[in-house]
């Protein structure tokens, strides 16, 4: 299964333009140094990195990878778990990049929110990325990369908008409101984490069933 994960990551790295990712990270780092906008969007890269992981489905179809894996001595469950593993690694890489961008913003003294609020937003971004993965992978197996891409974009816009709204509320809240909001968001985040991680085995199980019915 490790070899399958390595293959996915190699395909993702070859497809994702390294120059674009580097330019984006540099741009966000500069924003974090010169104004308070950078800290507000530094955590979003966690979510963007999940999109890069899901893109492995496109490479799979382009190179007819499914036909090859059908002859490998691995089970359908191993194939599916490898895909979840590769996307999870992309999300983890996004967390590291977002943390570095956040540190730059706070060191430069241009963070628009407190460290605790930013950490809470980072955790929420991670939960959104995991939820994104849980929804998209079964759908990609069911509809394929071409049709699934539409769902991917709609879901990305919806979750991105939700994160932006929460970030704006946190930024514009008064001190008293911020204290109440921070406490509420902690409980909401803990509840969301429980739901998101409880859905993970359900998502894996659905993906295994859908993938097992596919013929290549």
From TrEMBL:
This is ABC-2 transporter permease. It holds the Pfam family ABC2_membrane_5. InterPro entries: ABC2_memb-like. The keyword Transmembrane applies. Keywords: Membrane, Transmembrane, Transmembrane helix. The chain crosses the membrane at residues 12-34, 40-59, 80-106, 118-138, 150-170, 190-210.
């Amino acid at each position: 299964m490790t070899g399958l994960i390595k293959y996915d990551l190699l395909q993702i790295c070859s497809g994702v333009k390294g120059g674009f990712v580097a330019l984006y990270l540099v741009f966000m780092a500069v924003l974090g140094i010169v104004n308070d906008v950078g800290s507000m969007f530094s955590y979003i890269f966690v979510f963007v990195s999940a999109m890069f992981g899901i893109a492995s489905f496109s490479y799979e179809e382009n190179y007819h990878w499914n036909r090859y894996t059908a002859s490998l001595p691995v089970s359908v469950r191993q194939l599916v778990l490898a895909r979840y593993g590769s996307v999870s690694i992309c999300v983890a890489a996004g967390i590291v990049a977002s943390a570095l961008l956040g540190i730059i913003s706070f060191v430069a003294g241009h963070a628009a929110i407190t460290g605790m609020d930013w950490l809470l937003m980072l955790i929420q971004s991670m939960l959104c990325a995991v939820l994104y993965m849980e929804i998209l992978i079964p759908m990609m197996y069911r509809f394929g990369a071409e049709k699934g891409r539409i769902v991917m974009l709609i879901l990305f816009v919806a979750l991105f908008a939700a994160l932006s709204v929460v970030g704006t509320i946190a930024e514009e809240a008064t001190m008293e409101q911020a204290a109440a909001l921070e406490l509420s968001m902690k409980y909401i985040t803990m509840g969301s984490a429980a739901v998101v991680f409880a859905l993970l085995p359900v998502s894996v199980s659905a993906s295994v069933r859908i993938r097992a019915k596919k013929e290549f």
